[in-house]
Amino acid sequence: MTAVVRAEGLTKYYGKRRGLEDLDLEIQPGEIFGYLGPNGSGKTTTIRLMLDVIRPTRGTVSVLGAGSREAAVRARIGYLPGELALEGREKARDYLEFLGKVRGGVPAGRIGALAERLDADLGVPMGKLSKGNKQKVGLIQAFMHEPEFLILDEPTSGLDPLVQQEFLTMLREVRASGRTVLMSSHVLAEVEHVSDRVGIVRAGRLVAVENVSALREKAVRRVELHFDAPVPAEAFDGLPGVRDLRVAGASVRCTIDGRPDALIKTAARFTVVHLASEEPDLEEIFLAYYSDEGRHDDRQDVA
Q: In CATH, what number does 220-279 get?
């Protein structure tokens, strides 16, 4: 299948400052791709390059098999910018109906149905919308024409938790229909439950692309074991992936990086009466990509 997005050596400098450098990336049809990084890491620069809002310093990017400057390609894209400017006296519903006509028509009732799902009040003039309601209007305009490719930049900003959950349900429906999503965020928790793959960008460079299942497997677990009798500490020393080990009588506490296989096999030599394991802390593995103190060029990053 032809990739929905294909970037090769994609680079953007703002003068001497780096926005993005040597990005090689493919996003496949029907997947939700989470694009993660702290604010200022290069996520928005990547999206602007994909949409041909800005031009690369070097490298190439194609969207839906062509350049996104082409009108026919743009009509197949739904886009929510990170900063959505909605001003004026025009009511939100009138604005959305106008956009629907510009895009060739939206099915009857589609705008209202999306507004109901997101609990959006479309009778308010756009200039008086709260931040959360502006975000809802932005989501409606991105989803309403059922685009083949959705590009969402920090989509849950300003949304309350219940609306966030409904939004994630909408994303799953998009994937089930065979369409594709790029979701940019600095919050790991909001993408891990729906993404198929995650790209992590740091200081303008893509540092990792992982399947979510692989990322979870690498994540940190905290484990506590209790036995029916005291166990020797040396039995648990030096186990692969085990750190922060504390053995006190009949209890063992430790942290596991990755698979717990070695710990489980060792524990099975004794009689286990209780085992407690915290959910994998994906936030820690995510933040680990930003802990390289040997990198001194982070300050060059701007977007």
A: 3.30.70
Tell me, what amino acid is at 303? A
Question: Region 276-284: what's the mean pLDDT?
Answer: 72
Rounded Cα distance, 214 and 208, in Å? 12
Bigger pLDDT: 138 vs 89? 138
Q: In 89-218, which residue ranges form alpha helices assigned H by DSSP?
A: 92-102, 110-118, 131-143, 161-176, 189-192, 212-218
Question: How, if at all, do strands 220-227 and 272-277 pair?
Answer: antiparallel
Higher pLDDT, 138 or 37: 138
pTM: 0.79
Show contacts of 8-15: CB within 8 Å, 24+ apart.
8/59, 8/60, 8/61, 9/58, 9/59, 9/60, 10/46, 10/49, 10/56, 10/59, 10/60, 10/61, 11/56, 11/57, 11/58, 11/59, 12/45, 12/49, 12/54, 12/56, 12/57, 13/57, 14/302, 14/303
Give the model confidence (pLDDT) of 205-242 as tens digits.
Answer: 998 898 887 777 777 788 999 999 999 999 999 999 89
The domain 5-211 is placed in CATH, from the list 3.40.50.10860, 3.30.2350.10, 3.40.50.300, 3.40.710.10, at: 3.40.50.300
Report the alpha-carbon distance of residue 283 to residue 290 in Å, rounded: 11
Taking residues 285-297, report their average pLDDT.
55
